[in-house]
Amino acid sequence: MKADDIYEIFKTLSDPTRLKIVAHLIDGEMCACELLENFHISQPTLSYHIKLLENAKLIKTRKEGKWSFYTIDTERFYETANYITSIANRSKENNKKA
């Protein structure tokens, strides 16, 4: 994973609405209408946030007719966690040497 990817992920997740969308998707797939019930925002605003999450590859979209269903891209979150863990491990190793 590149530093640019990490930057994009953190920038995307820094918005409270997008972070809340991800939190709602932890329990599984949801359609836009279900997500919208949890927020006081318009459908176009939800679509904007969803698009940014998709662009950062944090969520996946599945189309079924006119409906869109969203899930967390678990692999992307694991990659991000592994990247952060590797930084912590390297820092810990370097601090032991000092």
From TrEMBL:
SMART domains: HTH_ARSR (SM00418). Keywords: DNA-binding, Transcription, Transcription regulation. The keyword Protease does not apply. GO terms for molecular function: DNA binding; DNA-binding transcription factor activity. Residues 1-92 form the HTH arsR-type domain. The keyword Transcription applies. This is Metalloregulator ArsR/SmtB family transcription factor. It comes from Citroniella saccharovorans. The lineage of its organism: Bacteria, Bacillati, Bacillota, Tissierellia, Tissierellales.
